[in-house]
Amino acid sequence: MQRNSVPPTNRERLLDLLRVSGTSSRIDLVEATGLTAGTISNLVRVLVEEGLVEETGRAASRGGQPRRMLQLRADSRCAVGVHFERGGIELVLTDFTGRTIGASRVDSDQRLAPARQLEAVGTRILAMADACGIAPHRVLGIGLVAEGPLDVPSGTLLANEADARWQGQPIAGLLERQAGFPVRLVPVGTAAALAERVLDGGRRQPFGVIYLASSIAAGVVHEGQVFRGADARPVELGHITVDFNGPPCPCGNRGCLSQYSSGAALAQRAASLPGLAEALAGGAGNPMADVQAIAEQATRGHPQARALWKEAARGLGHAAVSLVNLFGLETVVLAGPALAGAGDLLLAEVRSIVQASSCHRALSPVHVERSRHGPLSAAIGGALQVLCASDGTRTQEPTHRMMERS
Ligand SMILES: [Zn+2]
């Protein structure tokens, strides 16, 4: 179903370069790809004829004729990103450049069986595309982003901490049937890293991304690519041991970072504190609502809330040091919905730990910064996974309910 290990075609590489750079000349593309000027010229001609690429003005040349600049035609194709979070399912629609043009949300309903929940998601995707005036043939597919462990090639959820009924569900195939578009399963950390790679193309590499939501996910971008392990497995930063005497984790390890610093862990700890429990949103099955409430209390100076955040941030800081040391990173980006409330507190603590403790700090300072792409960056990364793996042509025709209706 998915092509995770097949190298990209020249056409895919060219589209990807234009997506990351925004605009490039033919000479820029020759230099970036190592392909001949003739090959680039032919590829560009075909892509312009197909309406996927357009010329946009001229740039000053390093001698000779001004260079004609190229860019993707934003409205030529679209992709959908769907992020399964514990409290709700976030949906985004992006244009061919990866810019968000629509967003929607489906609340998780624990009473619904997985197939029914995916049916609601499929219906909402079609309504979102409809509302944005997007014809089905322009949608290349759906990137379905979920927390692990996942079997990415088969599109199956291997386990689900929050709801055991999802365990073993072939969710990519189920959603494909509901929405009528090809679906690719994408780990959260991979999606979050992809969003930074494409939308912040100028950032120095290698860099790491830590995505904090109900769970903790991470990704690493090196030499223009998001790191993928065997079968497209992500960087499982949430399951590194921070206390080897700690409790067993459902992943099989013990004392994992996720058990201390994830949104779900934070919500669980706050609920057990009499001075804080009453201030929580009481979002059963929605830890992020509680995390927002804890963040609000922390910014108002509530001592228990501040202590909880600081402890979670310490865990993340030391995990970030491990990520920096393992991959030789110069930059760590913090992302995810948990940053919405207490992001400054989190950033300051993680930055101070990383700058004081990473192995090679004497050689160059490690930057710790916040993602510029907001709480939906994982959903956006899901759509980008579809765009980046596409040569702009549909690989399968939509079996479309929108078409059946019209
Ligand atoms: Zn674990």
Description:
The chain is α/β, with parallel strands linked by helices and 406 residues long. It has 14 helices and 15 strands. A 5-stranded mixed sheet has the order 6-5-4-7-10. It has a 5-stranded mixed sheet with strand order 13-12-11-14-15, sandwiched between helices. Strands 1-3-2 form a 3-stranded antiparallel sheet. The protein is globular, with a radius of gyration of 22 Å. It has 3 domains: 63 residues, Winged helix-like DNA-binding domain superfamily/Winged helix DNA-binding domain (Arc Repressor Mutant, subunit A, Orthogonal Bundle), CATH 1.10.10.10; 140 residues, ATPase, nucleotide binding domain (Nucleotidyltransferase, domain 5, 2-Layer Sandwich); 171 residues, ATPase, nucleotide binding domain (Nucleotidyltransferase, domain 5, 2-Layer Sandwich), CATH 3.30.420.40. The structure holds zinc ion.
What would the keywords be for this entry?
single chain; 406 residues; alpha/beta; Arc Repressor Mutant, subunit A; Nucleotidyltransferase, domain 5; 3 domains; five-stranded mixed sheet; 14 helices; 15 strands; disordered C terminus; binds zinc ion
